[in-house]
Amino acid sequence: MKRVVLALALLGWPTLAAGQGQELHGADSVFAGPGVAIAWGVLRAAVEEQTQVVIRIVPVGRAYTHVSVEAVDPFTRERRFVLRGHSPVDQLDVRSPRGSFADFPRREIHLYRTADDWRTAKPALTVYYLGVPDTTPEFASEAALVTYLAAALAKVQGAGER
Q: Tell me, what's the pLDDT at 93?
């Protein structure tokens, strides 16, 4: 077992500190994992500086009580909260200017089982992205974006139930 862990660490696979939860690479613009579904979309604006990246986070079941989102510079490891903490009921839309991904491209979505876990920064699950996923669609209207996010998440959640 020690050899396997050492081999994975040498290959660059993520390793977790003691007391930390599972870490998963989200990769695609639609993600379904243990207790959560996530979809990305871009809402274009007439001026690029106003273009928004939207991450919709949908808790599945009652696995998590709180969520936070951090932007990370992969070179300096500097972190900035995009969302310090929120207790999602049905869904949560997190919006960021597309330009914010230039200096802080990594996004980490931390999910916490309890309020105490959130207060002590002990996520049960972290889903991370290395920038806006290449598969993220862009939309010219809010209505088209909202329709897409709902349909994409319904599809992935339906597939997960089978």
A: 96
Domains of the chain as residue ranges with CATH: 22-157 (2.60.40)
Mean pLDDT of 109-126: 96
Q: How many residues does the chain have?
A: 162
**What would the mean pLDDT of 111-120 be, rounded to a whole number?**
95
Tokens for 32, please give them. 């379904």
Residue pair 45/53 in contact (Cβ under 8 Å)? The answer is no
For residues 28 and 130, the answer to whether their CB atoms sit within 8 Å is no
Cβ contacts of 62 within 8 Å, gap of 6 or more? none
The answer for residues whose C-beta is within 8 angstroms of residue 95's C-beta and 6 or more apart is 52, 53, 54, 55
Chain segment 103-114, per-residue pLDDT in tens: 999 999 999 999
Q: What is the pLDDT of residues 72-87, one digit of tens each?
A: 999 999 999 999 988 8
Query: Residue 21, Cα to own-chain centre: how many angstroms?
Result: 15
The Cβ-side half-sphere exposure at 81, using a 13 Å CA radius, reads: 8
Q: Where are the beta strands (DSSP E) in 16-65?
A: 22-25, 30-33, 36-43, 52-59
Answer for the pair 72, 122: CB distance below 8 angstroms, yes or no. no
pLDDT of 10 strictly over 90:
no
